[in-house]
Specification:
By secondary structure, this protein is an alpha+beta fold. Helices cover about 35% and strands about 10% of the residues. A six-stranded antiparallel sheet has the order 1-2-3-4-6-5, with helices on both faces.
Length: about 500
Amino acid sequence: MGKCRAHWLCFPCLKLTRSFRMGSASKRTLLIAILCLANLFFLVLKVGHLPQPRYRRRNEEQKRHAHREHHLDGDLPDTSDLQTSNLEVPTRFNVLYITLKSKRPKPAHILGTVRPKLRKKVRTKTSSPSQRKQFSAERDAAQANSDSALEPPRKEGNPVDFPRTSYNYGKDNHISTIRIYSPKAPSWFSAQDVKNMRFLADAKVLRMKEIPRMDAPALLVFEGVDMDQLVNQKHLNRNVCGGRCGVIYRSVDSTEVFAFHLDRVLGLNRTIPAVSRKFGFLPDSQACQAVLWDASLYPEELAAGPATVSITWREYQNSLTQRCWHSNVNPKSNSDCSTIYPSEWSKLALFDFLLQIHNRLDPNCCGFRPRQEDGCAEPGRHAACKDPENLRLANIVQRQHDLRHLVFTNNKGFFDRNEDNLNFRLLEGIKELPEQVVSVLRSGKLREKLLQSLFLDQMFWESQGGRQGIDKLIDVVEKRAKVLLTYINAHGIKILPMND
């Protein structure tokens, strides 16, 4: 029985062997190749399904994580650290694509900056809950005392001094927030502009005064440690400031700082230097606008406010039509001309349109649809637009010793106004615009110059959210510049050189 089974098992093999021997050489070669390929296929399939040891996979993940920093710097990993396993054929490939970032090159020569000193880390001892409660109570009491110290009793019409202990405490911060990493500042800033910016951003506060005003919020003036005289002695009011001073505006937005940089980039030079700065003696310690104090703007009593030009909309339009002071010719006595050069009105209209500042040429918001936050919601204010000819302009400021030029103050702009609601009343009656300003708008380099200029003020840059926030502000100004260029071409406005 066993022999019979062996005969039946060996019979197919014998038959295949006999046919293999009797076949031709080409058929034998083909059959051998097919068998080899089949054997190789099953071998690879079997090896691919073998499980990889856990300890080996864990070691490979640790090595790949340890060498990831070298990949980020652009260096290739050492091949000696990569050990092959006993398995000759890998079945799964984990490919990791990393974007290589080039190292930021350091400037060859850095001026105007002071590198911070390295501070040693000091371990603080953990305190008990009772000690923490006592410390928080003392801190709240100190905060309440500082808040009350910043609110002295008001005296109508007279400057009020703050107690010295309310703002003169703590160590000075010797790290300048005005960043200039090249031998020279941008060409649109003068040497005096750079000095003023550094004073406003870095000066130690020696004295503070609160100046009450009639129809406006009180001014908070601080006197810095630098006692250099910025203006002539005859224009300096010693009752307010004995040296160099600045005005603190605790407003939510920082349009005054942006307006200063835009003014310098366009070459107008009509705004007062302004920076963003944090004052430790203020309760919230948020970034505020610090504007340079200019005593020449207050020739009379401080409570009366700055020197302004009283002019109606009709008189303003007549002065534009008559081209007053053209070629420096004195106008006739019976004309409606003001003391302001016509080029000053053109610069003011262009500047206000880019920032949509309406509190000068359109204080009643007659040229657009006002919102609640535009300041025109007072009863009867917008209704006065029915008689626009007799409306008076506001905040038209000039210096006492220079009655031919304007000073752009209180530059509260609006960046959230839609393009279909722009105030074109600001451009009404304007037939000429300065060539220097329009050339900057047409050059396509407005964004580049504004980024370079605003980067100098580190506090303003960070308060707006860095590059992303600054780009949003510049986007708005660029779109309005394109609208303005289209308006110039459509209305045939002349572009003329308007040098001082």
